[in-house]
Amino acid sequence: MELAYLQTFCEVARRRSITRAAEELGYAQSSVTIQIQKLEKEYGAPLLERHGRQMRLTPPGEKLFALAIQMLELYDQSKETVAGYAGGTLVIGAIDSLSAYFLPPYLQQLRQLFPELTIQLHPDQESNIVSKVKDGEYDIGLLLDAKKADSVLRCEPIREEPLVLVALNSHSLANMTHMELDDLNGAELIMSEESCMYRGMFEKVLKEGGITFTALFELGNPEAVKQCVMNGLGLALLPQMVVADELSQGRLVALPFKHPDIRFDLQYMIHPRKWMSQPLESFIQLLGGR
Predict the structure, then answer these.
(1) H-run or E-run covering 16
(2) pLDDT digits over 143-175, tens only?
(3) What is d(CA 133, CA 271) in angstroms, rounded to the nearest whole number?
(4) To 10 degrees, what angle do helices 59-83 and 29-43 make?
(5) Is residue 110 exposed (0-12), middle (13-18) or buried (19+ Cβ within 10 Å)?
(6) What would you measure as the largest C-alpha separation in the chain, in angstroms?
(7) Measured distance CA(103)–CA(106) in Å, rounded
(8) Which residue in 158, 159, 156, 179 sits closest to 167, CA to CA?
Protein backbone atom coordinates (compact mmCIF):
# COMPACT_ATOMS: atom_id res chain seq x y z
CA MET A 1 0.00 0.00 0.00
CA GLU A 2 1.29 3.46 -0.91
CA LEU A 3 1.01 6.51 1.32
CA ALA A 4 -0.39 8.36 -1.68
CA TYR A 5 -3.49 6.17 -1.44
CA LEU A 6 -4.03 7.31 2.14
CA GLN A 7 -3.55 10.95 1.11
CA THR A 8 -6.16 10.48 -1.62
CA PHE A 9 -8.53 8.75 0.79
CA CYS A 10 -8.20 11.60 3.32
CA GLU A 11 -8.84 14.21 0.64
CA VAL A 12 -12.03 12.43 -0.47
CA ALA A 13 -13.13 12.12 3.16
CA ARG A 14 -12.57 15.84 3.81
CA ARG A 15 -14.25 17.05 0.65
CA ARG A 16 -16.92 14.31 0.55
CA SER A 17 -16.49 14.17 -3.20
CA ILE A 18 -14.27 12.16 -5.55
CA THR A 19 -14.59 14.94 -8.14
CA ARG A 20 -13.43 17.72 -5.80
CA ALA A 21 -10.66 15.53 -4.37
CA ALA A 22 -9.41 14.78 -7.88
CA GLU A 23 -9.38 18.50 -8.72
CA GLU A 24 -7.45 19.33 -5.55
CA LEU A 25 -4.88 16.56 -6.08
CA GLY A 26 -4.54 17.01 -9.83
CA TYR A 27 -5.63 13.42 -10.55
CA ALA A 28 -8.19 12.05 -12.97
CA GLN A 29 -11.40 10.95 -11.25
CA SER A 30 -10.78 7.41 -12.42
CA SER A 31 -7.38 7.42 -10.70
CA VAL A 32 -8.94 8.51 -7.39
CA THR A 33 -11.60 5.80 -7.70
CA ILE A 34 -8.97 3.13 -8.39
CA GLN A 35 -6.89 4.21 -5.37
CA ILE A 36 -9.93 4.01 -3.09
CA GLN A 37 -10.82 0.59 -4.48
CA LYS A 38 -7.27 -0.65 -3.83
CA LEU A 39 -7.47 0.59 -0.24
CA GLU A 40 -10.81 -1.15 0.28
CA LYS A 41 -9.30 -4.38 -1.09
CA GLU A 42 -6.26 -3.95 1.16
CA TYR A 43 -8.38 -3.50 4.29
CA GLY A 44 -11.16 -5.85 3.26
CA ALA A 45 -13.93 -3.38 4.05
CA PRO A 46 -15.90 -0.62 2.30
CA LEU A 47 -14.47 2.76 3.32
CA LEU A 48 -16.81 5.20 1.55
CA GLU A 49 -20.46 5.19 0.55
CA ARG A 50 -22.59 7.54 -1.48
CA HIS A 51 -25.06 9.66 0.47
CA GLY A 52 -27.15 11.75 -1.90
CA ARG A 53 -24.69 13.73 -4.00
CA GLN A 54 -21.88 13.38 -1.48
CA MET A 55 -19.58 10.63 -0.28
CA ARG A 56 -19.44 9.79 3.40
CA LEU A 57 -17.26 7.51 5.49
CA THR A 58 -18.48 4.09 6.54
CA PRO A 59 -17.73 3.05 10.16
CA PRO A 60 -14.51 1.25 9.01
CA GLY A 61 -13.71 4.34 6.93
CA GLU A 62 -14.03 6.60 9.97
CA LYS A 63 -11.56 4.46 11.88
CA LEU A 64 -9.09 4.44 8.99
CA PHE A 65 -9.44 8.21 8.51
CA ALA A 66 -8.40 8.87 12.12
CA LEU A 67 -5.42 6.52 11.76
CA ALA A 68 -4.46 7.82 8.32
CA ILE A 69 -4.19 11.38 9.66
CA GLN A 70 -1.72 10.14 12.27
CA MET A 71 0.21 8.03 9.75
CA LEU A 72 0.62 10.89 7.30
CA GLU A 73 1.66 13.23 10.09
CA LEU A 74 4.29 10.76 11.26
CA TYR A 75 5.53 10.56 7.68
CA ASP A 76 5.92 14.36 7.54
CA GLN A 77 7.62 14.28 10.92
CA SER A 78 10.09 11.66 9.72
CA LYS A 79 11.04 13.79 6.70
CA GLU A 80 11.71 16.87 8.82
CA THR A 81 13.53 14.93 11.51
CA VAL A 82 15.77 13.04 9.11
CA ALA A 83 16.43 15.68 6.48
CA GLY A 84 15.62 19.00 8.13
CA TYR A 85 12.59 19.17 5.84
CA ALA A 86 10.52 22.35 6.18
CA GLY A 87 8.08 21.90 3.30
CA GLY A 88 4.85 19.95 3.32
CA THR A 89 1.47 21.47 4.02
CA LEU A 90 0.18 23.63 6.86
CA VAL A 91 -3.60 23.61 7.16
CA ILE A 92 -5.11 26.55 9.05
CA GLY A 93 -8.73 26.95 10.09
CA ALA A 94 -9.84 30.48 11.02
CA ILE A 95 -13.05 32.45 11.37
CA ASP A 96 -13.92 34.80 8.50
CA SER A 97 -12.74 38.05 10.07
CA LEU A 98 -9.30 36.64 10.90
CA SER A 99 -8.96 35.04 7.47
CA ALA A 100 -9.72 38.28 5.67
CA TYR A 101 -8.31 41.03 7.89
CA PHE A 102 -5.62 39.56 10.15
CA LEU A 103 -3.81 36.60 8.65
CA PRO A 104 -2.65 37.63 5.13
CA PRO A 105 0.54 39.50 6.17
CA TYR A 106 1.53 36.66 8.52
CA LEU A 107 0.99 34.10 5.77
CA GLN A 108 3.24 36.17 3.52
CA GLN A 109 5.98 36.19 6.17
CA LEU A 110 5.61 32.45 6.67
CA ARG A 111 5.84 31.88 2.92
CA GLN A 112 9.10 33.84 2.83
CA LEU A 113 10.53 31.71 5.66
CA PHE A 114 9.47 28.42 4.05
CA PRO A 115 9.24 28.80 0.25
CA GLU A 116 8.47 25.09 -0.22
CA LEU A 117 5.58 25.12 2.25
CA THR A 118 2.03 24.76 0.94
CA ILE A 119 -0.38 26.82 3.05
CA GLN A 120 -4.10 26.03 3.11
CA LEU A 121 -6.36 28.59 4.82
CA HIS A 122 -9.94 27.51 5.48
CA PRO A 123 -12.43 30.17 6.66
CA ASP A 124 -14.86 28.35 8.92
CA GLN A 125 -17.25 28.61 11.86
CA GLU A 126 -15.88 28.31 15.39
CA SER A 127 -17.61 24.98 16.13
CA ASN A 128 -16.23 23.46 12.93
CA ILE A 129 -12.73 24.73 13.65
CA VAL A 130 -12.73 23.14 17.11
CA SER A 131 -13.98 19.84 15.70
CA LYS A 132 -11.50 19.75 12.81
CA VAL A 133 -8.51 20.59 15.01
CA LYS A 134 -9.55 17.69 17.24
CA ASP A 135 -9.85 15.37 14.23
CA GLY A 136 -6.50 16.45 12.80
CA GLU A 137 -7.98 18.03 9.66
CA TYR A 138 -6.59 21.43 10.70
CA ASP A 139 -3.06 21.76 12.06
CA ILE A 140 -4.05 24.92 13.91
CA GLY A 141 -7.24 26.87 14.53
CA LEU A 142 -7.62 30.61 15.07
CA LEU A 143 -10.67 32.30 16.51
CA LEU A 144 -11.96 35.01 18.80
CA ASP A 145 -13.42 33.97 22.13
CA ALA A 146 -13.83 35.34 25.63
CA LYS A 147 -12.70 32.10 27.26
CA LYS A 148 -10.72 28.99 26.41
CA ALA A 149 -12.51 27.64 23.37
CA ASP A 150 -12.21 23.96 24.31
CA SER A 151 -11.12 22.00 27.37
CA VAL A 152 -9.39 19.23 25.40
CA LEU A 153 -7.35 21.31 22.98
CA ARG A 154 -4.36 23.47 23.83
CA CYS A 155 -5.82 26.98 23.57
CA GLU A 156 -3.52 29.98 23.97
CA PRO A 157 -4.43 33.68 23.85
CA ILE A 158 -2.36 35.89 21.55
CA ARG A 159 -3.86 39.27 22.36
CA GLU A 160 -7.10 40.97 23.26
CA GLU A 161 -8.95 42.03 20.12
CA PRO A 162 -10.98 45.24 20.61
CA LEU A 163 -14.62 45.32 19.59
CA VAL A 164 -16.03 48.60 18.31
CA LEU A 165 -19.58 49.80 17.77
CA VAL A 166 -19.48 51.59 14.44
CA ALA A 167 -21.78 53.99 12.64
CA LEU A 168 -21.86 56.21 9.60
CA ASN A 169 -20.73 59.81 10.25
CA SER A 170 -24.27 61.08 9.70
CA HIS A 171 -25.83 58.79 12.31
CA SER A 172 -27.61 60.52 15.21
CA LEU A 173 -25.17 58.96 17.72
CA ALA A 174 -22.01 59.71 15.74
CA ASN A 175 -21.07 62.91 17.62
CA MET A 176 -21.48 61.56 21.15
CA THR A 177 -18.42 61.81 23.40
CA HIS A 178 -19.79 59.46 26.08
CA MET A 179 -22.32 56.67 25.88
CA GLU A 180 -24.33 54.65 28.35
CA LEU A 181 -26.13 51.42 27.57
CA ASP A 182 -29.48 53.27 27.63
CA ASP A 183 -28.36 55.36 24.66
CA LEU A 184 -28.84 52.27 22.50
CA ASN A 185 -32.54 52.01 23.33
CA GLY A 186 -34.44 51.73 20.05
CA ALA A 187 -31.26 51.30 18.00
CA GLU A 188 -31.34 49.69 14.57
CA LEU A 189 -28.58 47.09 14.43
CA ILE A 190 -26.86 45.06 11.75
CA MET A 191 -26.14 41.67 13.31
CA SER A 192 -23.60 38.99 12.51
CA GLU A 193 -24.83 35.42 12.16
CA GLU A 194 -26.34 33.77 15.23
CA SER A 195 -23.31 31.53 15.86
CA CYS A 196 -21.02 34.57 16.10
CA MET A 197 -19.44 34.85 19.55
CA TYR A 198 -19.49 38.64 19.86
CA ARG A 199 -23.09 38.87 18.66
CA GLY A 200 -24.08 36.62 21.57
CA MET A 201 -22.17 38.84 24.01
CA PHE A 202 -23.78 41.99 22.63
CA GLU A 203 -27.33 40.62 22.67
CA LYS A 204 -26.93 39.31 26.21
CA VAL A 205 -25.78 42.73 27.47
CA LEU A 206 -28.63 44.50 25.67
CA LYS A 207 -31.32 42.12 26.91
CA GLU A 208 -30.05 42.08 30.50
CA GLY A 209 -30.04 45.89 30.40
CA GLY A 210 -33.64 45.98 29.19
CA ILE A 211 -32.63 47.65 25.93
CA THR A 212 -35.04 47.37 23.04
CA PHE A 213 -33.49 47.19 19.59
CA THR A 214 -34.29 46.17 16.05
CA ALA A 215 -32.08 43.66 14.25
CA LEU A 216 -32.55 44.84 10.67
CA PHE A 217 -30.24 42.29 9.06
CA GLU A 218 -28.48 39.08 10.06
CA LEU A 219 -25.41 38.51 7.89
CA GLY A 220 -22.84 35.74 7.90
CA ASN A 221 -19.90 37.78 6.65
CA PRO A 222 -18.25 40.68 8.54
CA GLU A 223 -17.55 42.49 5.28
CA ALA A 224 -21.28 42.42 4.45
CA VAL A 225 -22.09 43.79 7.91
CA LYS A 226 -19.57 46.61 7.43
CA GLN A 227 -20.93 47.51 4.00
CA CYS A 228 -24.47 47.77 5.41
CA VAL A 229 -23.23 50.20 8.07
CA MET A 230 -21.41 52.22 5.40
CA ASN A 231 -24.67 52.50 3.50
CA GLY A 232 -26.41 53.99 6.52
CA LEU A 233 -28.53 50.96 7.42
CA GLY A 234 -27.71 50.91 11.13
CA LEU A 235 -25.08 50.27 13.80
CA ALA A 236 -22.89 47.20 14.12
CA LEU A 237 -20.50 45.71 16.63
CA LEU A 238 -17.39 44.41 14.85
CA PRO A 239 -13.78 43.47 15.62
CA GLN A 240 -11.62 46.56 15.22
CA MET A 241 -9.48 44.81 12.58
CA VAL A 242 -12.52 44.65 10.28
CA VAL A 243 -13.08 48.41 10.26
CA ALA A 244 -9.55 49.74 10.92
CA ASP A 245 -9.12 51.26 7.44
CA GLU A 246 -12.56 52.88 7.41
CA LEU A 247 -12.02 54.39 10.86
CA SER A 248 -8.59 55.78 9.97
CA GLN A 249 -10.00 57.29 6.76
CA GLY A 250 -13.00 58.79 8.55
CA ARG A 251 -15.53 56.80 6.55
CA LEU A 252 -16.93 55.26 9.74
CA VAL A 253 -17.06 56.43 13.35
CA ALA A 254 -16.35 54.31 16.44
CA LEU A 255 -18.97 55.18 19.05
CA PRO A 256 -17.70 55.68 22.63
CA PHE A 257 -19.41 52.50 23.85
CA LYS A 258 -17.66 50.09 26.20
CA HIS A 259 -18.91 47.28 28.41
CA PRO A 260 -16.85 44.88 30.58
CA ASP A 261 -18.83 41.86 29.36
CA ILE A 262 -18.09 42.58 25.71
CA ARG A 263 -14.48 41.55 25.15
CA PHE A 264 -12.57 38.59 23.80
CA ASP A 265 -9.14 37.33 22.85
CA LEU A 266 -7.59 36.30 19.61
CA GLN A 267 -6.46 32.76 20.39
CA TYR A 268 -4.96 29.78 18.63
CA MET A 269 -5.63 26.14 19.35
CA ILE A 270 -3.82 22.94 18.49
CA HIS A 271 -4.25 19.33 19.51
CA PRO A 272 -2.20 18.57 22.66
CA ARG A 273 -0.57 15.63 20.85
CA LYS A 274 0.08 17.62 17.69
CA TRP A 275 3.58 17.28 16.28
CA MET A 276 5.08 20.76 16.14
CA SER A 277 6.75 21.11 12.74
CA GLN A 278 9.17 23.95 12.05
CA PRO A 279 6.59 25.88 9.97
CA LEU A 280 3.89 25.47 12.63
CA GLU A 281 6.19 26.64 15.42
CA SER A 282 7.34 29.59 13.32
CA PHE A 283 3.76 30.52 12.46
CA ILE A 284 2.78 30.63 16.13
CA GLN A 285 5.84 32.77 16.91
CA LEU A 286 4.97 35.19 14.07
CA LEU A 287 1.49 35.60 15.53
CA GLY A 288 2.99 36.48 18.89
CA GLY A 289 2.05 33.22 20.57
CA ARG A 290 4.17 31.06 22.78
Answers:
(1) none
(2) 988 888 788 889 999 988 889 999 999 998 888
(3) 6
(4) 100
(5) buried
(6) 71
(7) 5
(8) 179
Fill in the DSSP letter of residue 151: S
For the chain, the helix, strand and coil percentages under 3-state DSSP, each to the nearest 5: 45, 25, 30
- R_g of the chain, CA atoms, integer Å: 23
CA-nearest of 86, 80, 79 to 115 is 86
Can you give the length of the chain in residues? 290
pLDDT in tens, 22-66: 888 888 888 889 988 998 888 899 999 888 788 899 999 999 999
- For 148-153, the CB contacts below 8 A with 24+ separation are 148/267, 149/267, 149/269, 150/269, 152/272, 153/269, 153/270, 153/271, 153/272
The pTM is what? Answer: 0.69
Structural element, H or E, at residue 58: none
- One-letter amino acid for residue 271 of the chain: H
Q: Is 118 helix (H, G, I), strand (E, B) or coil?
A: strand
Confidence at residue 278, expressed as pLDDT on a 0 to 100 scale? 86
Mean local confidence (pLDDT), 257-272: 89
- The Cα 161–Cα 163 span in angstroms is 7
CB 225 within 8 A of CB 219: yes
